[in-house]
Design a protein that fits this description.
Length: 303
């Protein structure tokens, strides 16, 4: 689904506001953050400009500056809505756009060395909000041979991040984006992925979830539901024996008030996980409504 961002008012779309709020939970890895401009094509890695950048920057923490979403760490570029928003890339930024991106950017890069490979409005964000920054772009053209050469030569002076670190950080970051700060523990250190497109998330011989690449988010398996339950995240408590894949609101005793429709949730009876699925209502609505579907289950424990 395309998220159309055609004017400055798009800064205040619920999707953009929620994204910027979630970005405040994100932490960079490594000692150096490389700042890059966004692209028209999504995800950014598929664009010609980012293909050039990635030949040089893939072993570092990459951060894309973009409006109206503010910032996007490379590891989250395939998540909704950042993987499908549509906006004209003009390079001209209003002060409101600069401020919304700059505030999040400043907090994200705190304590890190920053290499800014940007121009135009992206550079203006950096100059207004960052005190110490290394600029590598020449003549306002980030993709020019001279600019790419400058970037390559500069990054030779900075320590790289291993591929395993980047993979682990990506999986943890998606969990934090989806469920909040505590969810980094959803991904164990021994995690493995399997699959060409959608990725099975495995710990030992157990599948925790599927990373659905249509939205770049996790869909839970029962084992992953048990991990999320132990973390106290997105729990829906019921007081009846599940016989179908539909959980109606009247049978729900309590629900996490942070739950919103389409969230992945864990259905618990007593102290046992009995199902996982997608919320249809908010957590508060599940508690207050006398009719309607609260959760549609993907997996449940069969008696």
């Amino acid at each position: 689904m395309k998220v159309i961002c055609s004017s400055e008012e798009s800064l205040y779309r619920p999707e953009a506001v929620r994204w910027r709020e979630r970005m405040q939970l994100m932490k960079p890895i490594g000692d150096t953050v490389v700042l890059l401009p966004c692209s028209m094509k999504k995800p950014y890695s598929n664009s010609k400009s980012h293909m050039k950048f990635r030949k040089v920057t893939r072993s570092f923490q990459e951060l894309i500056i973009t409006s109206p979403f503010g910032i996007c760490p490379r590891e989250l570029e395939e998540t909704f809505p950042i993987q499908s928003y549509d906006v004209a890339v003009t390079g001209n930024w209003s002060q409101d756009e600069i401020d919304e991106s700059g505030k999040i950017l400043k907090e994200y890069v705190k304590g890190k060395t920053v290499v800014a490979h940007v121009s135009g409005g992206y550079e203006e964000v950096c100059r207004q909000y960052l005190d110490d920054c290394i600029y590598t772009c020449v003549d306002g053209k980030p993709t020019s041979p001279d600019s790419i050469y400058n970037l390559r030569m500069e990054l030779k002076n900075h320590p790289k991040i291993s591929r395993r670190q980047k993979v682990l950080n990506k999986l943890k970051s998606i969990a934090v984006y989806q469920w909040g700060e505590k969810a980094s523990e959803f991904i164990p250190e021994d995690v493995k992925t399997k699959g060409q497109f959608h990725k099975k998330i495995l710990s030992g011989n157990k599948q925790l979830a599927m990373l659905n690449m249509h939205q770049g988010l996790y869909t839970l398996n029962l084992e992953g539901g048990r991990v999320l339950k132990d973390l106290g995240i997105n729990i829906v408590n019921i007081d009846f024996d599940l016989k179908t894949n539909t959980v109606f609101a009247p049978g729900i005793e309590s629900a996490d008030h942070k739950i919103i429709p389409q969230d992945e949730v864990v259905v618990v009876r007593g102290d046992e996980v009995v199902g996982v699925g997608k919320a249809v209502m908010t957590g508060r609505e599940m508690e207050e409504c006398d009719n309607g579907i609260g959760v549609k289950l993907k997996h449940r424990v069969k008696n």
